[in-house]
Amino acid sequence: MKPFNPLAGNPLATRDDFAKACISLLDPLIPSLTPGFGAVKLGETGTRYDETAAQIEGYARPLWALAALLAGGYKWEGAQKFVEGLGNGADPEHEEYWGAALDTDQRMVEMCPIGFTLAVAGDHFWEGLNERQKANVAKYFDITEKEMPNTNWLWFRVFANLGLSKNGYTYDHDRMEKDMNHLDTFYRGEGWSNDGPRDYTQMDYYSGSFAIQYLQLLYAKIAGGVDPVRAEKFKERARLYALNFVYYFHEDGRAIAFGRSLTYKFAMVGFWAAVAFADVELPAPLTWGVVKGLLLRNLRWWSKQPGAFTPSGTLTIGYTYPNQFMSDNYNSPGSPYWAMLSFAPLAVPADHPFWTSPEEPFPSASIPQTVALKHPGHIITRLGGHTFLLSSKQQCHYPLRAADAKYGKFAYSSAFAYSVSTGSYSLWSSAPDSTLSVTYGDDAEWKTRKKCDTDGIEVIEGTSVLISTWTPLEGVGIKTWLIPPAEETPNWHIRIHHITTARPIKTAEGSFTVSNERRGDNRELDIYAEGNDGRFGSVNEAFAVSRSGAVGIVDAGTTNRVGETMNMDSNSNLLLNRTVCPLLLGSIEKEAWYVTLVYALPAEEGSDGWRKTWTDGYKERPKIPLWAATIMSH
C-alpha cells in the first residue's frame, strides 16, 4: 500500500482549509481509540516509558489541534469521544485509568496539551465532565511535589495548573509562580532561552517552536488578563526571537533539520502559530502576511511527503519516512502528534489579521542572506539555493541517541538533511556527512565531534567565522574554522582544521548527502558521465549529482587526501532513505592542516535548470582567505 497523506490536495490557503487539514489528521485516530476513549494505540514500537503512558500520548497530543479547532467555532464528530476519554482516564475506578504520575513521569508531559485544552476549550471539555470527574482531573493534575527534569518540562506543570485556574477550580498558584520564576533563569538574551540551566548548551527547536517560546506565548494570551507584566515580557521576547528564528526557514517553506525530536515534523513552525494565537505583532519585515506564509508553506511542504504518514493516514515515527534510527528513546507511536500544536491559529477568529492578511513570500529582500547568531552559536545563510547553518557550540546535556549527529555536525540544511549512525564499526554506518571523523585503526570505531572544548564566533576581515576546539579521541586535538559562503561562490563553504595526534590516525571528511537514485530507473548512482546523474572520486575531490541535487568536497590543501563516494547506510538520512556521500579519506602521523571546500546545490522542484548551472559552479572554487593562509603558515 502506498502511504496516505491526509494533507495532500489541500491548498492550505484559508482558515477553512486549515480546519479541514486539522480534521483530516484527527479522523484517522478514531479507529485506534480504546473502548473507553482514554488512550490511542497507534503501533507496537516501544519507548523508555511504559505502554500506558505511550498510549496517553496518542490521546493527549492531538488535543493541541482539537482544542484550537473547537475554540475557533468548528466542530468535529469525534470530539465527544475525547471528552469522555478525559473523564475515564483520570478516574481511578475506571479500567482505563491512566495511573498517578510518579517522579519524572511522561504523564506530566501530556498534562500540558490537556491543560491547554481545558483553558481554551473548557466549555467543551471541562463542562462536559460531571463534578466527580472534575475532581478526578484536578487530583490527577496535582503534581506539585513531583520531581521534574530541570528543562522545558516545568512548563507542563504550569499548564496543568493553568487549565484548572481558567475554569475556576482550585489550583496551585504558588507552584506556578515558582516554576515560571525558575524557567526565567533559562533566558539568555535577544529572545533566546536555553533548554535548561546555564551549563546546558541546547538551543534547538525546543527553545522556540516545541516548548519554551511556544508555551510562553500561549500563557501570555490565556493568562494575560491576570498576569499582564509577565505576559508582555513573553511577547517582547517573542518579538526579539522572531528576528532570529526566521533565518531557520527557506523560501520554499522548509525548515533547517537540526537537533532532536524532528519526528514532530511540522511542529517546527509552532512558534509562528503561537504568534498568531497570542496576537503578537512582530517587528518589520515580519508582517502578518509573512508569518502566515511561513506557517502555511511549511504545511504545504509536508503535504507532499507521503512517507510522513502510514497507509491509514496517521503520523509516522521519522521525519519524511518511517525511521527508528533517527528517533529518540522517548518517541512512541503517539509522539509525532506534538506536531498538532501548529494548528493554534484556528483558535483566533476569522477577522484576525493573521487570516485576513494576504499571504506574503519569505522576506528575502529585507533581511541579510548570511547572519551570525550569538546565542545558538550558528552562522546561517541562504546563499546557494538552500538555507543552512554552520554550528560549533551545541550538545545535548544527557546521552541522547545520535547526539553527535543531531548537534555536533558542521552544517545543517533545509534541503540536505543530516544522517544518523546505524552502527559503530564501519565508516558507512557512522553517518560521516558534514563531519570530520577519525579512527586509530581498521577495527576501531570512527569518532567525530560530540562536543566542543571551546567555541565562539569571530569576525575576521569582515566575515563571521565559527571557531571550535574539540577532542574526538584521547591524544587527538582538533581546531576547526567554519567559513560561510561568499557571494562570488555561493554554493561553497570552507572548513579549515588543524589536527595534532599522539599516534597515527585515519580521517574521513564528508560533504552533504544526495539521493542515491538516478533518474529514469531509480537505480544506484553509477560513474558520472557529462549530463547524467552519477558520482566520481579522485585524488583531492569527490562529487555526486542525482535527483535531489549536487554535492561535492575538495581538498584545497597539500595533504593529498583521496576522494571517494560512499553509499550511506540505508535509512540513516532523515530526508532520503538511500543516500550517497562524497568523502575525503586521509591519514595523519602527528600533525596536519586540512583545507576543505564543500559544494552543495539543491535540485529545483519541477525544473531541471539547476543541472545546467552546477558544473560551472563546481568549477569556480572559493578563494582561501588571506588570514587563513597566514594562520596555517605559522
From TrEMBL:
This is DUF2264 domain-containing protein. PANTHER family: LINALOOL DEHYDRATASE_ISOMERASE DOMAIN-CONTAINING PROTEIN. InterPro entries: DUF2264_C, DUF2264_N, UCP014753. Residues 14-361, 368-629 form the DUF2264 domain. It holds the Pfam family DUF2264.
